[in-house]
Design a protein that fits this description.
The complex is a heterodimer of chains A (about 575) and B (about 80). By secondary structure, chain A is of the alpha+beta class. Chain A has helices at about 45-55, 105-120, 125, 135-140, 160-175, 180-200, 210-235, 240-280, 285-300, 305-360, 365-415, 420-435, 465-485, 505-525, 535-545, and strands spanning about 1-5, 15, 20-25, 75-80, 85-90, 95-100, 105, 205, 210, 440-445, 455-460, 495, 525-530, 560-565. The chains are: A alpha+beta (about 575), B alpha+beta (about 80). Chain B: InterPro entries: ABC-3C_MC6 (IPR046897).
Chain lengths: ~575, ~80
Amino acid sequence: MIIKLSSSLSTFKTLEFNPGLNILLAERHESSGVRGTRNGTGKTSFIELLHFLVAEKRNKEDDFHNPSLINNKFEVIFDNSGSQLTIEKTAGEASDLLLVNGREVAAIDLRSELSQTWFGLNSEITSQKYSPKFGALLSYFIRKERNGGFADPVLNSTSQKPWDSQVCLSYLLGFDWHLPQKLQLKKDEKKNADALSSMIKSGYLTDGELDLKKMQARADLLDSEIQVKRRDVASAKVIDGYRSHEISANELTAKIRDMNEANLEDMDLCEDIELALVEVEDSDISDVRSLYEQVGIFFPNQVQKRFEQVEQFHRQVSKNRQIHLKKELENARNRIELRRSEIARLQLSLSEKLALLRSGVAIERLSLLQSELNFLEVEHADLQQQIPKFQNVAKDQKRLKREIDDLVDLIEQDVMERSAPRKAAVQIFAETSQALYDDAGQLIIGRSRGIAGLSIETDIAGKKSGGKNHMQVFCFDWLLVEMAKKNDRFPGFLVHDSHIFDGVDARQIALALRLAHQKCEELGVQYIVAMNSDDLQKVEAELDADFSDDFDLDDFILKTRLSDQPGGGLFGVQF
Amino acid sequence: MLMPTKHVKTENAIIGIGADVLALLDHDKTVSRLFHDLQQIRTEKQLSTIHFDWFLLVVDFLFSVGAVRFEQGVLKKMNQ
């Protein structure tokens, strides 16, 4: 149970609690006017404060890190079957300070201690995925209106996942919580299989069916491509200045081509000269004689040379021409020869260059090869990994669907076979609701219609209103208290915000408080409920009119009262 | 051969070519150079090139009438 709540903040209203029923009253003052509300009295902050003190995670956005509260120590004293536990927590700028019984401890250690003492959860359980967790269980006994904790009896907040609710409630009510846990694990697996399956469908598809053969073929092709590339890379010899070698090889080729062209020209020339030589040889001395005779006929007075002189001249000129031609011929032939040997030399060095270029690669080429290889290898590895998965995914989907169905069946069987807790739960809920509304409400525990798993539904008589819904929460929480207590999984207290009575008729509130008092006595538990003073007045009027017993609310109202006056709230400061 | 006839045009007769050769001998030239220059102007005039033996007869003619002489491998006009 909770013994005391205090703070180093001087304006804080220290709250001291008793065993059994405790009513924390928030008074409304006339001066606050018709529009005044009790918001800001701190009833909700009181709930937040309890969560803050045992919270594992640090939330810098919460009220306790607000400039007006930061660096103030808050303290709660719990009584766990006779031994006192003092928790002091100070919210700081950089970190929070947590003291348990005066010793500084890590929030996580406090939490595992409380998990054990309050809920019987050991670390072996809490470390499992989808197991009952301290925070979720506590949020049933200290519901937060802010998180929608009063909207649905089976949910501690509107954002609570169905599996979490199933696991927690199975644990508290005494059913096999491992079944909803296992169900959720299987659902995860199924989700993965479904995701994989849809991935396949968007990828390797043939007429809407997974084409494993296509994937295998691609993998095989990649395999051989990779081998070729690997060999290329392994044998690749990187040549320094590959580019410049390439350029000089091109230059050599151009030079050789130019020389070959020049040789062709010279060979044409030689041919021409040889023809000219033939022409020289053709010149017949007999033609010279007939020419000489003609000159003598046409220009008898102009002939100045004797025939022998002309003949000698003819031979000289002819010989000169021959010598000249022969020299030209020789020159041309020499040039051809020279070029040929030069070409041979160039060709040798060209073939050396080409051999060099063939034997190796430029560094850029090597890195290109390397990256191509990497790319192929990645795809290959990917396929190798995916193919077996894809082979199994269809099988997995079927298997998981079957297993999920089986688990839902098992959950139903579990609930049916554990008749003791089931009957107890149904009976307690019926009795509790009957105490409020005359007609017994129904608690239906069983399997869900689909594959959600465990289904717990509540229904109580009474009109359809927010009030009725809140009373379902009230009845359900008292069921949880009783069952959890039986199963030794109860922290010793139940705390309700004043929201539990929102929209509830004064008569039902009166009955609820009386019932709570009886349950507290009967079970030896603590119930702390916050109330607004005007609700209380109405309730007291109901009690005076309808009940003859000696149940008097004044006996349970806490000494410390909150109010909407300035400084009257729990913290005494506005923020 | 020497003079133009019904079948030999002036530009192909030895006397005609002789005139061209003399014109080309503005300074002394080797035999081959002179032959080359002659072929060139004939090509320019769109005339057929001539064989060397015909050219040689032209030079023989010019020598016999004392128009050219041959000295140390070069042909010279007589009056030069």
